[in-house]
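Anyone? Bumping this.
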Amino acid sequence: MGVAVTTPDLESAPRRPGPLRVALLPYALISPSLLVIAGILAFPLGMLVWLSLQHYGLRELIQHSGDWVGLGNYQAILADPLFRQVVVRSLLFTFACVGLTIALSTLIALLLLKVRQAVRVIVMSALVFVWATPVIVTVDIWQWMFDYEFGVINYLLTQLHLGNFIHHNWFDSPIQGWSVFVVVVVWGAIPFVTITLFAGLLQVPADVVDSAKVDGAGPLQTFRFVTAPMLKPIFLIVTCLSTIWDFGVFTQIYVMLNQRPSSDYFTIAIYSYRESFGVTQYGLGAAIAVVLVVILIFVTLFYVRETVRVAEIG
Amino acid sequence: MIAPGTAQGVRVGAARSAAQAGLRINVGQRVKQLLYDVVGLAVAAVMLFPIYWMIATAFKPGRDILSLTPKWIPNPITLENFQYAVQRPYFVDDVRNSLVIVGSMLVIGLAVAFLAAVGTARFGFKGRTGYLVMIIGVQMVPLNALIIPVYLMLDSVGQTDALPGVVAVYLAVVLPFMIWTLRGFVANIPPELEEAAMIDGCTRVGAAVRITFPLVGPGLVATAIFGFIQAWNEYIVAYVLLSSPNNQTLTVWLASFTTNHGPEWGPLMAAATLTGLPVVALFLVLQRYLAGGLTAGAVKG
């Protein structure tokens, strides 16, 4: 380190930067990143809104220009009973997934505080393994485990006398099919949320918890009134992130149903994809995507505000 | 012999019952501890089982996979699923594509992110807070929603079935996180080091390149691994943008195992194992950095 600091001969006559150059330097430093984000995130976002106001089908795709229809696409999707169904279903699915993820992860994180060191290492390693496995790989695994013919889950449930699950197709009934997706998504989400919550729990000072116990608080009360409030920023962050991820879910359902999901299994993201790339109605697909973004913006605003407050920028 | 009524007798009796009570608490605690440990192990088993089942299936011969009574431990073990998987068309092409995409994205991304990290960690300037808020905010933009305009944009310049388009999209997705993480690493290096170098005759840029850059090494490694994992695992963008099989990535290639008769489970599990392997390996390296990064400043006032 010391060697690196003393290198005067490399720049024998440093030019003194003028005040204007110093003032512009930070802008020069952030400009490449601004360019990338503006070009590949902000511009497409604007284009998405613009597209949603156009009729943009196959003919327009070839001509590279759409026909202005104003709010026509929005009127069309709002009048579409399937779209309303899809939104309601996506919301219910998100509530179920986020609720279960947070509840189970909190329980596991609290359990990690209680188990002996060796068990903690084992559980943490298991969580890290699941976290690291690509989503697409986990989807293939669950598809195999829920296979109607040779799937291990049908076998286990039958062996446990929970009913006759031989040759049971989980995706025949939407309720069961969606339950499968809840399992897949929650299982995949638990590691990140648990590890984050556990790391937060470790930072809760032990003396505060001890003094609550001395004052006569039971374990539930200690959690409710001492631990949970201190973890509030972390709960906020993981809840918001989970909401964003689960509400925009695509891969799990799309791949598990062999890339041909029936309309019973549409989420907003799948519906938008279908309208644009399936039936080449890019305008309609864009309008659906805008609805998805608008709903998520409310969640995001909340998250950004909290994150800014926690990180104490500037 | 100690008579029960005497003072000595009372004392001994009290000591004995206290010892028994202590023993009871001790046993109770042990049972509780055992219970916690057993539940903990059960959680680990449930979480890990799907991964185990993938690996176990990958090593089983076909007749053991398609059997109504599953074999819990693969016996005999075979490598034929792996051989079959890697000999499938486009495996080598798609491994190469994945590596090229991830590699170019990382080189460009780390350079751009490092500049932005130095800019925001070392300088106060007008619009800095706005820039940082934007960096957090854009991470929330759902990629699924942007796929339509991105596709149309790339289509109008004839780049839909080409790797650069995918690199650009991944770059935009990973960049905000890279900047945010690297900024933390740069901020942790005392500015005095750079000032010393400048007194010794370095320019401001020279100091950043010669002093700051080598010191953020661990940060660059952690950020690079994170970017690798994100890009390696991505599916939707690659699936939509890359249409010819020899231009696709590994995650899209995995879908080619699903024929009209349903997936070929053995080879699919072998291929999934191969796809996941580099990521899990890298993740285990990254974990150390991540545990600190996630929690740093998380519980604050």
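Late reply, but here is one note on the structure posted above: Strands of chain A lie at 54-55, 67-68.
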